[in-house]
Specification:
The complex is a heterodimer of chains A (about 325) and B (about 400). In chain A, about 35% of the residues lie in helices and about 20% in strands. Chain A is α/β, with parallel strands linked by helices. Chain A has 2 domains: about 5-190, 3-Layer(aba) Sandwich (Rossmann fold); about 200-330, 3-Layer(aba) Sandwich (Rossmann fold), CATH 3.40.50. In chain A, α9 (about 220-230) crosses α13 (about 320-330). The longest helix of chain A is centred in the N-terminal third of the chain and has 15 residues, at about 10-25. Chain B is built from 9 helices and 19 strands. Chain B has helices at about 80-85, 130-140, 160-165, 170, 180-200, 210-225, 235-245, 290-305, 380-395, and strands spanning about 1-5, 15-20, 30, 35-40, 45-50, 55-60, 65, 70-75, 200-210, 255, 260, 270, 270-275, 280, 285, 320-325, 345-350, 350-360, 360-375. In chain B, β10 and β11 form a beta hairpin. In chain B, α2 packs parallel to α3 (about 160-165), α7 packs across α8 (about 290-305) and α7 crosses α9 (about 380-395). Chain B is globular. The model of chain B is unreliable at about 85-105 and about 170-180 (pLDDT under 50).
């Protein structure tokens, strides 16, 4: 038996950087490219210091051309490399959507399984930093619509540290969405923490009265709501999806069968959202277990506003989650 | 603000007549208080409230007949009071002023970005019940019209059906629209008892107990009491069962879906004959923690009210074990049929004088036969025997009850 490793405290940003550094060390075919990832250290400072450590061959600054460098990443992956492409935000990723959907997600299918694209694309998502309507949206639900790729949403430092390596081992494209409000969050990790699975949801808090299903930046608000509900005698179970494609139906349905009530918290817009997909799956697979209509807390259907008070009002917040849970319990 | 609504108290109950208000606006009420009397096909039922707060407004006049679900009164809850919520009459949703800021040109009017969430009202005459509640009701042939909902907007949820499954036989029957129907009570008893004998593998044990000293204790205790406050052997019997079953948890609970669930509290169903025929077994709550005098008072009250057809809504639904006593009718022992989903029934026969061997000599003693009918899926004869012996032992020590 070995002694337990020492615990270290680090930020989500540090954990992500450590994951990239670890991958670069372990596999010579791994390299990072994106806008400002090298000399500037990444627009959210995730790759700070990596250029000095690994050199310009492996930490590559790219021109402002998302479609171009994402396509280059796809080509490199098809040729045997293990690229990590960083897109500055999910809003900008739309310029590369053609590459992701029409190329990365389809090549294995269209080549009759002759080629795969073992590419990892990382990008920032979410509102809360007053970056206004062109830098703040949560479009991961759109990507979760696409067969042929995997979509991850690490919400904890453990997942920020552990998901990347597993994603790099995948033979197909994996997109990792990092919520901008999480970068400064600190957490504790064992110093020797390694890779984690990327296909299972996790119950972050157990409860018997209602299932609160969420992911990414909304996890922490949802956990806070669960504490507030507990003060009123309502025991909420909080599920962190972790993987948005595939969705871990088993963990969701097990919880629903126990609590019989559900609220889904999703920073995406309500209409046609990931929350809509989860809601439908529950209706399809666990309709007869339900004791109340499924509730949703989503972003208001507006471009995310710049003013702070409006931005706060536009996205899911603790009081809205608490209210939705109480409505489902008939205690509103 | 919470609305207190006309509850559904029986199958086919579509409406009830409010015959008595026991509260008025301004009164404080707490969960469980009897606030009104409603006349139904079943007779007058005392209606309990499920909220704690203050009655703000009475919405229905005396002697009005209103459909199930009609708001009867408005209650300001404790939480609302603390939060300082104003008493708001039902008002149309406020419209936000649409005047543009003076310095700006108004943009062309647009539709709201998010359409409001519209809840489709339930079809008329159909109880609003959750899928989980519907499935459980279907499995146990429970008519949802006999279940009172506690979910969102008064919807019936699974827990409500579970509570209903524990209901006494007389509350399970379907009522005809006119008056108290003995036929319907008969039909309900038939359904419950047939189900019991079909599904429950009963086993029976009996145990004779010398209650001479208990009778003497009762005589001494009652000597100085007016008739209305005297204790009867039935109260000792009920308390003995309640105390014993607290230790023998295999006999206090419910068997559902192939699984036994012990009940956390002891609610004794007291089998009471209804005049003219029929039987009800309304519940006495937490008997194990009730002093004897209080228990006796409640038993008297329960018998009177049951025979008068005034059973409270909560009493109709949640006994965890049943006690039946046919001693008054002169029989010495009864072998009961368990009321599903309960798992045990205790019977008490008549106290009879018998020659009995005490300390090596034969003498006259007062003997009662206690019987157990129990569900063999849950317990075995060994546990049943110990349980019966414990009841007998407790019954012989009335001063400790």
């Amino acid at each position: 038996m070995t002694a337990p490793a020492a615990m270290i405290e680090l930020t989500y940003r540090d954990a992500m950087r450590e994951a990239i550094r670890d991958a670069l060390r372990r596999d010579k075919d791994v390299f990072l490219m994106g806008e400002d990832v090298g000399r500037y250290g990444g627009c959210y400072a995730v790759s700070k210091g990596l250029l000095a450590e690994f050199g310009p061959e492996r930490i590559r600054d790219t021109p402002l051309s998302e479609s171009g460098f994402t396509g280059a990443g796809i080509g490199a992956a098809m040729a045997g490399m293990r690229p990590i492409v960083e897109l500055m935000t999910v809003n900008f990723s739309l310029l590369a959507l053609d590459q992701v959907l029409n190329t990365a997600a389809t090549v294995r299918h269209m080549s009759g399984n002759q080629f795969g694209v073992p590419l990892v694309i990382r990008m920032a998502t979410g509102a809360g930093r007053q970056l206004a309507a062109q830098h703040s949206h949560s479009l991961e639900g759109w990507y979760a619509h696409i067969p042929g790729i995997k979509v991850l949403a690490p919400a904890t430092v453990e997942d920020a540290r552990g998901m990347l390596w597993t994603a790099l081992q995948d033979p197909d494209p994996v997109l990792i969405f990092e919520n901008v409000m999480l970068y400064n969050m600190t957490g504790k990790l064992a110093a020797d923490t390694g890779a984690v699975d990327i296909d299972k949801a996790v119950v972050r808090r157990a409860g018997r009265d209602i299932s609160l299903i969420t992911y990414g930046g909304s996890l922490w608000k949802t956990l806070e709501a669960a504490v507030a509900l507990a003060a009123e005698g309502i025991e909420a179970e909080v599920i962190d999806l972790r993987s948005l494609r595939p969705i871990d139906d088993g963990t969701i349905m097990t919880s629903v069968k126990k609590t019989r009530r559900v609220v889904i918290v999703d920073e995406g817009w309500r209409s046609g959202s990931l929350s809509a997909e989860i809601c439908t799956r529950i209706i399809e697979q666990a309709f007869w277990e339900l004791d109340a209509p499924i509730g949703r807390v989503c972003s208001e259907e507006v471009p995310i506003p710049y003013p702070r008070h409006l931005e706060i009002a536009a996205i899911p917040q603790v009081p809205k989650i608490v209210a939705a849970a109480k409505t489902a319990l008939g205690r509103a | 603000m919470v609305e207190f609504r006309m509850p559904s108290l029986g199958a086919d109950m579509e409406a009830g007549t409010l015959v008595e208000w026991l509260v008025k606006p301004g009164d404080q009420v707490k969960r469980g208080d009897v606030v009104a009397v409603v006349e139904t096909q079943k007779g007058a039922i005392e209606i309990e409230i499920f909220e704690t707060g203050r009655i703000e407004q009475i919405l229905v006049d005396l002697n009005s007949k209103v459909p199930v679900g009609t708001p009867l009164a408005r209650i300001r809850t404790e939480l609302e009071r603390k939060a300082g919520v104003a008493v708001a009459p039902v008002a149309p949703p406020a419209r936000v002023a649409e005047t543009p800021l003076p310095a700006l040109r108004a943009p062309p009017p647009s539709r709201p970005a998010t359409p409001p969430i519209i809840t489709v009202p339930g079809a008329a005459g159909r109880a609003r019940a959750s899928p989980a509640a519907r499935r459980l009701a279907e499995m146990h042939s429970v008519d949802l019209a006999t279940v009172t909902g506690s979910g969102p907007s008064g919807a019936i949820i699974r827990a409500d059906v579970e509570r209903r499954l524990v209901a006494a036989p007389a509350s399970a029957e379907t009522k005809r629209p006119t008056g108290l129907s003995l036929d319907a009570i008969r039909a309900a008893i038939a359904a419950a008892m047939a189900r019991s004998k079909r599904e429950i593998p009963h086993y029976y044990l009996e145990h004779q107990v010398d209650v001479t000293s208990s009778e003497q204790w009762l005589t001494r205790t009652n000597a100085s009491r007016p008739p209305g406050e005297r204790l009867l052997m039935a109260a000792l019997a009920a308390k003995s069962v309640a105390l014993a079953v607290r230790r023998f948890t295999l006999f206090n609970g419910f068997y559902h879906d192939g699984k036994y669930e012990p009940a956390p509290a002891v609610h004794l169903g007291i089998a009471i004959a209804i005049r003219g025929g029929g039987l009800a077994a309304p519940a006495l709550h937490d008997v194990d923690r009730m002093p004897l005098d209080e228990l006796m008072g409640r038993m008297r009250d329960l018998v009177q009210r049951t025979r008068a057809g005034r059973i409270r809504s909560s009493e109709m639904s949640d006994s965890t074990i049943t006690v039946s006593s046919l001693g008054e009718r002169g029989v010495e022992a009864l072998h009961g049929v368990i009321y599903p989903p309960q798992v045990a029934l205790i019977g008490f026969g008549k106290v009879v004088a018998r020659p009995w061997l005490v300390d090596g000599a034969i003498g006259p003693r007062s003997i009662v036969t206690i019987t157990l009918a129990a569900d063999h899926r849950v317990s075995d004869g060994h546990a049943g025997a110990l349980f019966l012996a414990e009841i007998g032992k407790l019954l012989q020590e009335p001063e400790k009850l």
